[in-house]
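dude i think i finally got it to work??
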Amino acid sequence: MPAHPPLAADDTRYRFTLLRAGTFKLEGGSMFGLIPRSVWSRSVAADDKGRITVAHNCLLLDRVGDGPGPRRVLLEAGSGDKLDAKMQDIFALEKNTAGHNAGRPRAIHDCLADFGIAPESIDAVVVSHLHFDHAGGLTRLAHPGQTPDWPCPPNDDGGGGSSQSGGCVLTFPNARVHVQTREWSDALANRSVMTKTYYPDHLHPVARRLVLTDSPRPFPTGYSPGRDELPATGVDLRMTPIAPGLFVFLVPGHTWGQQAALFREPDAPGKTGRTIVFCPDVMPTAAHLGAAYSLAYDVEPYTSMISRTWLLHEAAERGWILHLDHEPAAPLYRVLRKGRWFELVPEPA
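look at this
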């Protein structure tokens, strides 16, 4: 495989910190689509309601060295703290146990506070797609007396994800938000197999902070690839730089505009910096390695399978380290060939 041309031209590197923005639970059957429970339950435990535990895994990137562009970038924002009591119970959102937010859902701003990092210091946020469990944390509940950026109408009125009074504000007031143009269009139109996943209270407040990207698609629109077919255009040519040393590329299927993000770590003595790819819901956990392990939440499960196949192929060929967005255990994995398919090998942070 040839070297990645943009990386050769731009050697900007990032140190990363894993931010665990709380666990939550999703219905196991929906998370594994057509795979029967008798199969997926061998590796993933379900509770008495049939739900499995997943995580909001976010990455904080700190750029190494000087130069133009954002210095501190956040990948993913989690669900945030705005969901009402009914939704919190449905998804069993992890709660804060101490501090002034005790009893509230653990959110990305709580994670940053644990590291002494002010949300105002975030220069850019990259979200893989705009479902609430990835982008809900772009806004948070307003503090008493704080002027809201959005009123947060009650959930029953269809206006947002919260029935809390006081409205919401931008969590990262100085950050630009990077998303694919197709994803933004679908979010506004609520083109999803789920009725409540794109909420106005995490979309409209960030509209003026958006940076929209149109990355090339892996396959031409309207074309139906074979099960094992790889894109004719190399992934190098389908990556879009959104900041020095930081690239996004489309991995459609879960949504049409879902994107992955790629960056490189700095070199260390005797060690070459790794290439990290933030892997969204094309493969949300290590248990979703199988070719047919697409989600019932996917807008196109077959497309998800195709995307997962070529993504694993690229990762194995190029030595990428995948960071899985919902893996509740250690989320970093190296991909190796194993016969006609692949295996995931845990990678230390």
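The chain is about 20% helix and 25% strand.
im so relieved honestly
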